[in-house]
Every structure is written in C-alpha cells, then in structure tokens.
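[audit] Reproducing an earlier prediction to check determinism. Same input, same settings, fresh worker. If the tokens differ from the archived copy the diff job will pick it up downstream; this log only records the rerun itself.
[audit] input (268 residues):
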Amino acid sequence: MKRFLCILLVLCMLLPLGGCGRTKFRYGIDTVQVLVQQDYSLAFRNNDPLYFYVTAALSVLAAEGRVDQLAAKWLGSAALNYSKQADALEKLVPPEPQDLIIGLDVNAFPFSYLSNGEYWGLDVELAMAVCEKLGWTLKMQPIEKENVYVELSSGNIDVAWGGIALDPQEAASGKYTQYGPYIHNDIVIATRNGSAVWNKMRLGGRKMCMPSTPEARAALDTDPRLIKRLGQITRLAGGTTECFEYLYQGKCDVVLTDSTAVDYFNCH
C-alpha cells in the first residue's frame, strides 16, 4: 500500500509538468479584460499561382499532423484552423525551385518575432515547413499590417503571413486574396494567476506594461475610462516578452498583450 501511495504521489507531482514547452516552473496568466477581437489570416496577390502551392502544402502538413504538432508546441493545443488534404500537392504541377518572401509582423509574438537578430515563431516555423515541402527557399520581410496591399502589389512580398490581422474592409473589397482566418486572437489586459486584479473593476491605480506599438496604443484607446483608472503605464520597446519579464519580476501589475501570447506563457 505504501508503495502504491508513493507512486501516486510521484505521478501527481509530474502531471503539472506535462503539456507544451519546457518543463520548468512558470506563473499562470489570467485574462482580466478583452479590448480588441481579431483574426489572423494569410494574404496573397490576386490570381497568383503561389496561393495554390502554399495552401496545398499547408493542407498536406495539416493532414500529416505537423500543423497540430507546431500549434501544441507554441500554444499548448491544436489551435490552428487549416484544412487537411493529404494529396493536395499531387493535384498540382510539381513546383519549380524559387524564393518565397513572407511579410511578417515582428511584434506578433509568439507567431513571428525577432530573437537574437533572427526571425522566429509559430508562423515562421510553419512557413519553413511549407518551403521544405515545396523545395523552396524562405525569405522574411518585416511589414506593417496596414501596408499589406502595398507590400503585395509592389512585389516586395509574396504573402503576408506572420501574426497578420488583415483589415476587414481591404479583404472584403478584393484588394488581395485572403486565406483563413486560421486562428482568433484577442488583445487583452492580463495578470499573473492569483493576483489581486481578478477582474477589470480591480484595475484602478494598477501599474501596466505594454508594447510601444501603434496596435497596442490603438487597443488601449478603445477604452478611455480604462486609461483614467490605471496608474502608471509603461511602454516597452522590447515588446511582449519584455512586458512579461516585468510582470514576472513584479515591476507591474498587468500587461497589455495578445490572448495567443497568454496561451504561450501558460504552457512554457
């Protein structure tokens, strides 16, 4: 009986270490308030054959389980919505070698961001897998999401892909071909699990850190009363990861971030 209880105790200690990412101590993150709701999609030039090859490769990777594997690694669950079709590439003429230039938002952690001078993230890793499947060479170009049409039409990029929330009016007007959305994302106010700030009514006088990006500022501006209630607001050039470092170190009470970033930090 003692042996059984010891085994059960060990299992109970190991269970919290499962899931995605590295097995180390971490703080849970809770969402306090949703400011903006949006979706991430891909955008291609209209009538560009690249659309068919990239989306077919994504369908094959989804059918093979690679998409779910990467989503679990970065977000803790199979959160990406890509169609699955194992023979999608077989229906196309074999692709010739070429470069694929993706335009990404380097502030869209954990989908695309800069780490030690290199682009990384869930979308970057998935784009690498697509290029490997097609025999193409991946190149990355940082863009502003409001310039998607300009970047595509000028030929500066082949596809906008990397934490990009497309302008609904631009997408609806047919300026480019949208693929997706493949995941929903909220811009939120979040705090550490167990914090005294368990809902938005507790935000009065609290210190908040946020990325110093136009999108973050625009999200905060959607709730003028919130700005008045908050105490010190610190804008950090280091983006999402620096904001969470401040939160973990107790330098702020809450952060303005993405719900997908919350998913990432809850499983790493």
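[audit] rerun output stored. Observation attached for the diff report: The chain has ten helices and eleven strands.
[audit] end
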